[in-house]
Amino acid sequence: MCRSIKTLRGQEPPATDADVRAAALQFVRKLSGYRSPSMANQAVFDAAVDQVSEAAERLLDGLATRGSRRTTVIADHAEGSRPSAAAITSPMKR
After folding, report:
1. S-S: 8 plus which of 15, 30, 32, 93, CB 3.0-4.6 Å?
2. In a domain, 89, yes or no
């Protein structure tokens, strides 16, 4: 049920309001156990999605980043062979 929740921090391009809302909706669905709530629960369900969206926006806005996301690039190598340690590079040094 939560397959569409993805990491929103550090995305390029940055996460949109729609991305945050979709993640909030999936989170509330998971917690409540409802994919689509009954009419009796619709108002509280929608309010929860709104509140989770707002909290997620505050979280994403407030998180400090330490630079670019770490990515690993593997140089081309012959099919079936393993790349050497020198062939693996990373833009961030530790």
Report:
1. 15
2. no
Q: Give long-range contacts, CB 8 A cutoff, 24+ apart: 1-8.
A: 1/26, 1/29, 1/30, 1/35, 2/26, 2/27, 2/29, 2/30, 8/56, 8/60
The whole model's pTM is what?
0.62
Please indicate, yes or no, if residue 75 is contained in any of the structural domains. Answer: no
Q: Do the domain assignments include residue 62?
A: yes
Residues in the chain: 94
Instruction: Write phi, then psi, for 73 (nearest 5 degrees).
Output: -115, 130
7-38 pLDDT, tens per residue? Answer: 788 777 888 889 899 999 999 999 999 999 99
Q: Which residue type is seen at 55?
A: A
| Cβ-Cβ contacts under 8 Å for 53 (sequence gap 6 or more) | 17, 20, 21, 24
Q: Are 21 and 46 in contact (CB under 8 A)?
A: no
